[in-house]
Amino acid sequence: MCGMRKTGQENGLLGACLLIMRIEVPRKAEKIIDALQEHGYDAYVVGGCVRDSLLHRSPADWDITTSATPAEVKKIFPRTVDTGIQHGTVTVLIEKEGFEVTTYRIDGEYEDSRHPKEVIFTPDLKEDLRRRDFTINAMAYNHRTGLVDIFGGVEDLKNKVVRCVGDPGERFTEDALRILRAVRFSAQLGFSIEEKTAGAARELGETLEKISAERIQTELVKLLVSPHPQYLKKAWELGLTKIFLWEFDKAMETPQENPHHCYNVGEHTLKAMEAVKADRILRLTLLFHDLGKVETRTRDEEGIDHFHGHPAQSEKIARIVLKRLRFDNDTINKVGKLVYWHECPWQAAPRSVRRALSKTGTELFPLLLEVRRGDIMAQSTYHRKEKLEWLDRLGEIYEEILRKKECVSIKDLAVSGRDLIQAGMKPGKEIGETLDRFLDIVLENPEKNTKEYLLSLL
C-alpha cells in the first residue's frame, strides 16, 4: 500500500520529521484535499487512516484535517453537513459519500475528563497533531508533502507500541476514555503499551468513572472482537476493570481445582474468548459464561471444586452488567440465553437435541455449539477428545433436524390455537396448555406432528 524513505530536509513550518512516501488515498478524499489546496489552504488525511495504511490495513474511514475554517470549507463545497461544527467538523459529501473535514484546532481546558470547555482554531498542523491521543494516531499525509510524523508514530508502529503524544498524564486527564482506548488499540494491533503511558493509565484509571456507560461499552466491544480479546487482562492489570467490570476481577481470584480445568475462572474466560471467532455475541457470551462460579464455588472432601448452578448465576450477572453498560435488549437476551444454556447438558440423540432447540431456538443453537467449543478448548485436556466428538455429533443431529423440518416449537405444530377453537375448545389458558402438551408429544415423536393425530387427542 505504501513505500517510504526519509529525507534530510526539515520543513520550516512544521519543524517536523517528514517522510516522502505514497499512500493510496481514495479518489474522493483526494478530490477534497485538492480543492482545499487550490483555494490556498493546507489539507491532509489524518489519524487512523494513515496508521492503518502504514500497517497495510484497509482504513474504515478517511478523515481530513485542514487549515480552512468550517465556514471556508462550506464555501468551497456545495454539499456539506454540520456534524460537529462547534468542534470544527463539517462532513463533505462527494457522490453521496461523506468525509469528515475538521479544522486544525487547539483544545481548551478539560473540566469533565471528556470534553474541552472550548475549541480554538489554529493555522498550525503541528498544534493540531499535538492534541491527539497516541503517536500512531498523530500522523498526517498528502501527496504534496508526504507523511508528517512529528511525534515518532512510524517508530512506534515499527516497535509495536502504544504511546501517548507528549505527557500521558495530560492526555488522560484531558479525556479519560483514552485510558481504555490504549488497551483497545493494544488488543486490535497486538502492541504493547509504553511504560509511562501504562503508568499514567494505572494512576488515573479511576477517572473512567466520569465516562458514560455507552462510551465504555463501545471500547469494550472493540477490545473483545479484536484479534486479541485476551488483552482484557491488561485492563485488569492496570486496575481498569474494577471500575466498569468488577465481576471479572473476582473471577481472576477464583481457582478451579477440578480435573476439567487448568486455569482460574478469569484466565479460563480469556482463553475461551480467544478460542472463538471475532463475533460480538460469542465473545460477550464467553466473557460472562462462568462469572457465576465466583458465588457458586464449593470444595468437597477430596479438595475438588464444584460450581453447581453457575450457568443460572452467570446469566444473572450477564444481564446486570449488560444493562449497566447500556447494551440493547436484543444483545442482552441473546447473551443471557446463551450463557444460561452454555453447558449443553444434552445427550447426543435426536429427541434430546429437539428439546434443546425448543428452549434455545434454531437461530441460537449454532452459536451455542460454538460457545461450548470455546469453553472446551479453554479447559484442561481431560476427556477433551470425547467432549469434541460429542459436540460434533450434536451439530450433525441439528443439521439433520433442520433438513427434515422437524417440529421444535409451537409455531411448527401442525395445529394452531385457531384449529383448537374450531374443534370446540373455548379461548383461554387451556389453549396454550394444550399446545404445550402437543409440542411435548411431537418432540418425542416428530412423526406424530399431523393435524389429524393431534386433534384426535382432544
Gyration radius, in Å:
28 Å
Q: Strands across the major sheet, in which order? A: 1-2-11-10-3-4-7-6-5
- Strand portion, in percent? 5-15%
Task: Please give the largest β-sheet.
Answer: 9 strands, mixed
Total count of helical runs of at least 4 residues: 23
| Distance between the first and last residues' Cα | 71 Å
Portion of residues in helices? 40-55%
Could you give the count of β-strands?
15
Mean pLDDT: 92
Shape: globular
Alpha-beta content class: alpha+beta
Give the low-confidence spans.
1-16
Map the helices and strands.
Blueprint: E1 4-6, E2 17-21, H1 27-38, E3 43-46, H2 48-54, E4 63-66, H3 70-76, E5 80-84, E6 89-94, E7 97-103, E8 105-107, E9 119-121, H4 125-130, E10 139-142, E11 146-149, H5 153-159, E12 161-162, H6 168-174, H7 177-189, E13 192-193, H8 195-204, H9 213-224, H10 232-237, H11 241-244, H12 246-251, H13 265-274, H14 280-288, H15 293-296, E14 298-299, E15 305-306, H16 310-324, H17 329-340, H18 350-360, H19 365-377, H20 384-404, H21 417-422, H22 429-444, H23 451-456
Parallel strand pairs: 4-7, 12-13
Antiparallel strand pairs: 1-2, 2-11, 3-4, 3-10, 5-6, 6-7, 8-9, 10-11, 14-15
Helix pairs in contact: 6-8, 7-9, 13-14, 13-19, 14-17, 14-19, 16-17, 18-20, 19-20
